Amino acid sequence: MVSAHPRQALKPAQRKTVIGVVASAMLTLTLAFSGTAAADELDDRKAAIETEQQKVQETYEYLDAETSRKVAELAVYQQQLPGAQQALTDAEGRVSAAAGKVAALNGRVALAQETRSTITEQIAQDQAAMEDTQEVIGQIAAQAYKSGGVPSSFSLILGADGADSLTDSMGLAEQVLRGQNAAMQELSQQSATNVNSEARLAAVEEEISSLREQAEAALQLEQEARDAAAAEKAKVDTLIEQTAAANEALEARKPVIQAQLASLETAKAKVTADIAERQRVLLEQARKEEEARIAEENRRAAEEAARNNRPAPAPAVPPTTPTNPSAFGLSLPVQAPISSGFGWRATPPGSIDFFGTGGYLHSGIDFGASCGTPVYAPASGEVWRADQGQPDGMIGTGNRVVLNHGVIGNSALATNYYHLTSYVVSVGQWVNAGQLIGYVGTTGNSTGCHLHFETVLNGAMVDPMGLL
Fold it and tell me: What is the CATH number that goes with domain 12-255?
């Protein structure tokens, strides 16, 4: 007899747990791809682009709003693509795991069915053997009862040539019956074994039913996983398309933007050169005035020495050591945190290098103030410019004010204020330290409210932090 070991079937409570987990997973997957989730995802994408756009504005001071948004979109797509690709890989892994589970369950079902077939076949064979033996015993008993002995056919079966007397015949019958009773006892034992086999068969049947339920649930989860993987694949494909489209759009605009940048750089250089020339004139005038003052002091000292009949003192000379910039005593032009510092800006990896030089110089600092925030003169001075970036072509500055703070020692200082909503001073006007000159805005090349503040010391752009 072939022995088979049926696998342990799940208990009803365990089956409920499995079904609950399957239902929970299906509900989670359903919600994940609902319209609400898709809408939330779009809102998140929009918010991410707006946040990135502010970073772009801080990184690329010179970009217009349209280009700045396109750069922000490209950055967001590039940031989201690795995560989407990983999500796709994870989803594909879940598909593989689910398919493996389905295959394993199907294998267990096949094995259980094979065990069922084996047990069923053995039970049928044992039952047929019992019936045959019982039939033979019945025939012997009936014949012996009727004839008072063992029929010749059974004598031949037992190997005897025949019975000479009734005693011999009865002895032979007893011998046959004893043999058949022993066989019957063995069959009774087999019958008890078959009862156990039938119980095992019932357990196998229950296991098959449970495994089929698990296999169906696993197959459904596999389909859900495949749907999820397909959705993730669509996200990746969409991101790749969006990234490529944004990159192509920026590449297409690159010549136009570079031309605009060249124009802005030319205008900016012109403005800086104009300020530098004005400061050179101021410094030259201050130098001459200082030399004249010292010459006059030397003349008076010599005359005084001659009148008193004593040696003339050594003539004084103008100082040549640089003046400490902090001597101008600048205060903050606006009460707001600094959102972007002064210095070289390297082009972020994966971004368009519009300048073609790997970056550019951010020639001032940005204060992250809201539009309408008052801007005050950080020190007294004369208004050199108060306009909309004209006539030197500095449209990108928006509304601007340029203050001349004059000369201290050997240094001349001017300060620039860009992107103002409006200004309240005019050219040639004298302003005192702390006087209102305008309001923070987002005019010119700006996509968010802020103040771009520059300091020009002796004709060169310097970090305002060294003067504040």
Answer: 1.10.287
